[in-house]
Amino acid sequence: MATLDSKIPAGPIKDKWTSYKDHVNLVNPANKRNIDIIVVGTGLAGGSAAATLAEQGYNVKAFCYQDSPRRAHSIAAQGGINAAKNYQGDGDSVYRLFYDTVKGGDYRSREANVHRLAEVSGNIIDQCVAQGVPFARDYGGLLDNRSFGGVLVSRTFYAKGQTGQQLLLGAYSAMNRQIARGKIQMYNRHEMLDLVIVDGKARGIIARNLVTGEIERHSAHAVVLGTGGYGNVFFLSTNAMGSNVTAAWKTHKRGAFFANPCYTQIHPTCIPRSGDYQSKLTLMSESLRNDGRIWVPARKEDVEAIRNGKIKPTQIAEENRDYYLERRYPAFGNLVPRDVASRAAKERCDAGYGVNATGEAVYLDFASAINRYGKEQATIKGETDASEARIKELGKAVVEAKYGNLFDMYKQIADDNPYETPMMIYPAVHYTMGGIWVDYNLMTTIPGCYAIGEANFSDHGANRLGASALMQGLADGYFVLPYTIGDYLSNDIRTGKISTETAEFVAAEKEVRDRLEGLVNNKGTHSVDYYHKQLGSIMWNKCGMSRNAEGLKEAIAEIAELREDFWKNVSVPGSAYDLNPELEKAGRVADFLELGELFAKDALDRNESCGGHFREESAEVGGPQDGEAKRDDVNFAYVSAWEYKGKPSDAVLHKEQLEFKDIELKQRSYK
Amino acid sequence: MSNMNLTLKIWRQNGPQDKGKMVDYKVSNISEHMSFLEMMDVLNEQLINSGDSPVAFDHDCREGICGMCSMFINGEAHGPVKGTTTCQLHMRSFKDGDTIYIEPFRANAFPVIKDLVVDRSSFDRIQHAGGYISVNTSGNTQDANAIPIPKQDADLAMDAAACIGCGACVATCKNSSAMLFVGAKISQFALLPQGKIEADRRAQNMVAQMDAEGFGNCTNTGACEVECPKGISLSNIARMNWEYLAGAIK
Q: How far apart are CA B14 and CA B109, in angstroms?
């Protein structure tokens, strides 16, 4: 049985990574040419890893299910990327970024990994600027920063509301340079459907060409998964429609432990759902909380009047508004971390103060920011007697410059003008902190198989802070994996080409074919979406923003039952050997139906509240923290790493005890 | 507000070699709050449940940024609303009883794969020819603030970089020209000091690849700019031409 050795280097935390780099085994440039690496996924993690490994001289084969690597879902990240540059001179440092991230993750991340992340964060910005990423600048020509939730400094770099897009296009451009040199072979519209293990080591994948339906065998000396998160297990999330857990789940079934599956980030500021036909939810960047104030009416009669359309939110007087985040968390106000903000919104809506027809919406209001900026601009322009209308006009221009594209997006979707009336928002599933268990080298429990970015688990604990996902994806791909993978591959310089004709490849390919053919020949009565929506509803209602033992037990039973029904009655039109989007979905939903059960099992095991995982049985009672999440460090300061044993219900729990040597475990207070 | 009943005339083509034709479908009870692609989901669910083959179309993020969705709707790339991708188009732009024509993005350099799905890998190959700055990942690049960039240049570069590579410009252009797409990339780098070093060569190489892919020429109609969901400016084509010429006479 595999054992959990996190392989954290010895020594003081601030020296670990430097000393690791000084002593790690390297592969000579001439030998790199003889080594193949498969990278699955081309988002910030996979794309940056593929480019960097190819620059170093390895032969990279990169895979993405989209029609171009540029479309990976990292592209949708809006707000920004953190880095401990301290350009603003507001007291930031590597240690502070490290501390904020560990605290923000509610002390459930691995200290050594997080410190390394903070250390390389500055390099990311340097690298991206060198690549031509057009970050926002001030009039002096230097880089601008904004502030994000859960921290007291401005360390977030941004490119309008399209930071993910610009960073991804940077990684994509670095990939393009290597594709042109022949160092990356790019496989667009390909989906990994299994991992192939030969002699205990990851040696390749089985992939499906999504255009022709052909099943292909690809071999390599190492396999890297940068395949993102599994938020779509909820059906509705801010993920792309194609985002899926399949590559990660197949890898889990082949022996990689799956860590903390229950840690899910429910993002506080998303556009509320409007109907049953809804296919996805859209995020409004956290950066909006820099200037937007969140509130609900303080009086029930106003809630009624709003819902009946009798009054507008702008007609509710200041004293009748409940700015509940500012009320409950005066120190951080509207910039509390995401998990805290989401739960607070749910608390108000559950208490009956939700402001739309479904009762699941709160206001995000820019009126005071517009007024504040307007006055500031009037002073700058010397307009001492500016009218209220003029102040509003000046203020709107500032807000437009900062968030224009987000406001436009809101307008398009919600058909409402956020410059004139508050936005309506509600929490939605956004990011999964859980993922494949990896050691300090980012290697899974399968030798030669690595997981990077959102696909792994190590850096964000039980809650991710805003603008940290982009940081982690690029840190793993540009600066961590390219070092750590060499250590493993240095033992492979004499191995030679890996054959795809071995029994292991043949067997894996057969399994994939049988499953695909089984799906299209099933000829059942229900569409794939029918099952996906039902799974989503179980997950949201019983494994969502707040969880309890009874609900989780029900979820486990219901998901298992749904899965059985799926395999009996799902209907997938078309052929396995053709472009068939329904078949792609069917395979992904089949895996979500297994992951969902493990998710609930993990949530049931963790009888404490931490970060995004809120157990109703574990809340503070009385005192200043009444109702807040109650962590249990005595019994639960561990990473849950699940080993697959034939079905999700039989998964075996392994624990990686978390050690906090540099940060004192405290209750996470944002009051 | 009442729900809509619509007639859809959709291009069906069972593969690159198939001739393809428009086929009529009816959908009913469509909410004005649905996105266009959610309306397509409703149609596909209907087709699957009646044993027909669903309409293949590209889509992914459904928030207007990945550039995967395409569709020529009533004769316009991404449909009737300016500055909007198909996935962000909502049914409130249509009315009960409407007939909607839905076709793929058409261009020689974008062959149809199936139904509304086209192959845009020609765009990737143009990027391979020079859509990058030659810098390795070392961790030793100079400090980001060592290269001050005038805000105006940075903003213009960002405006050009906002291109999502969807191909609406090509589908719209009567010559199937890709110059707005190529001009945007060339401009982003030409405007920044980091990209200036290779600017000449980049323009030469990217334009050569663009021609090799079979994209047409620009005749300054400007339809691409009008239909671009991200408002990429025509001035990027002018900048590309300038960079190309500057490179050619060196």
A: 19
